[in-house]
Amino acid sequence: MISFPRAAAPFLASALVLTPVAAQAADTGPYYVATPAAAPAQQTLITSGTVWKWRDTVFTASKSGQREFIMCELVAQRAGKLTAFTAGGKPFDDDALAKCNARAK
Q1: What is the structure's pLDDT at 46?
Q2: Which of 35, 61, 72, 86 has the fewest other C-beta atoms within 10 Å?
Q3: Residues in Cβ contact with 103 at an 8 Å cutoff, skipping those fewer than 6 apart
């Protein structure tokens, strides 16, 4: 017969291993932040499977498999001209933002 502590050991070990990962993921926040020049008509946008949520004065989204520049272009196509775009905490410079805004609606 299996005793309770022995049977529970694998579950407890996996919980201890996964806890720091979950805590780290919760602290990272959005990966993308896009600031449109004008207030949006919609509070939620979807670009190539990525959901953008309106928070205060910006759209935010989790990291996707697309390149950062492509994500900027996609959100500009839906939200209009952007005044700022950040990916992974790194803001686009003026030249990159201007190229991104070439796709704005």
Answers
A1: 95
A2: 35
A3: 73, 74, 76, 77
